Amino acid sequence: MTEPIPVTRAVDHGTAKLMPDVDRARAWLLTVDGAPQSYVDLDAPTHLEFEYARRVGHVLDTIAEPGRPLDVLHLGGGALTLPRYVAATRPGSRQEVVENDRALLELVTGHLPLPENSGITVHTADARAWLGQAPDGSADVLIADVFGGSRVPAHLTSLAYAREVRRVLRPGGVYLANLPDGAPFAFLRSQLATFAEVFEELAVIAEPAMLRGRRFGNAVLVAAHRPVDTAALARLTAADAFPARVAHGDALRDFTGDAAVVRDENAVPSPQPPDGAFTIG
Predict the structure, then answer these.
(1) 3-state secondary structure the chain
(2) Which of 74, 248, 252, 257 has a beta carbon 3.0–4.6 Å from 203's, enabling a disulfide?
């Protein structure tokens, strides 16, 4: 049996590498310009290696009864880790994936093909532009995991964007976003203030050390018009190898403080991660 070998390719926004995991036969790590983007085990699509992905998975597991198909819109594709997870855990789901790097999408689908009848359709487009054309009330879940390099693009942070998210989601729908930040949390706090203008319920899932300002990291934002099961999420995230905390209610409002709502005209990308925060050589 031939050992898998790394694949390196110039893509539209940098240099992508697919590196096999020596400990798992058909598992791969995707990096772009040295920054980890996705991890996929083709034999075990429910295995979520990255901490933030596991936290998103916990939300996906708790927002509807187990196994119920969902209509999911993914902004950002990577190696299609989360779409594969939904397809495995909720068969029959209809999923649209929007990725603006065509060469990256071709690399991933060519070397890490999707299973037949996965219900996953991929598109090459700008996430905000695609969202603007999506039908009203067409998604049960909208997941934003979009990065230009290591930063969330500015046009996916504003109040106008949040209103488009609300329009596309069904009344009981849930929005999830992967948001990187560190102390003093100007970016994360501004996102909380912005989405609080549009959604009634907010929660953030992150490592306690990150929320205390001790390290740069990824926070998962959960936004909805209905209560999310924060108690179940707290139990699940506390049991992870790297336990997380679920912040919501008064604690989250205190964390947000007097942060200003983001408008298109003053939107900025998420902060540049410190050297070595996420880089793999």
Answers:
(1) CCCCCCEEEEECCEEEEEEECCCCCCEEEEEECCEEEEEEECCCCCCCCCHHHHHHHHHHHHCCCCCCCCEEEEECCCCCHHHHHHHHHCCCCEEEEEECCHHHHHHHHHHCCCCCCCCEEEEECCHHHHHHHCCCCCEEEEEECCCECCECCHHHCCHHHHHHHHHHEEEEEEEEEEEEECCCCHHHHHHHHHHHCCCCEEEEEECHHHHCCCCCEEEEEEEECCCCCHHHHHHHHHCCCCCCEEEEHHHHHHHHCCCCCCCHHHCCCCCCCCCCCCCCC
(2) 248
Amino acid 279: pLDDT = 42
What number of other Cβ atoms are within 10 A of residue 142's Cβ? Answer: 25
Q: Tell the CATH superfamily of the 45-266 domain.
A: Vaccinia Virus protein VP39 (3.40.50.150)
Question: Contact at 8 Å (CB) between 67 and 90?
Answer: yes
Is the pLDDT assigned to residue 281 strictly greater than 50? no
C-alpha distances (whole Å) from 51 to each of 48, 124, 185, 237, 271 are: 8, 27, 19, 10, 20
Q: What is the pTM for the complete model shown? A: 0.95
Residue 278 pLDDT level (bands cut at 50, 70, 90)? low
pLDDT (average), residues 255-276: 93
Task: Please check whether residue 198 is in contact with residue 191, taking contact to mean a CB–CB distance below 8 angstroms.
Answer: no
The 10s digit of each residue's pLDDT in 116-165 is 999 999 999 999 999 999 999 999 999 999 998 789 999 999 999 999 99
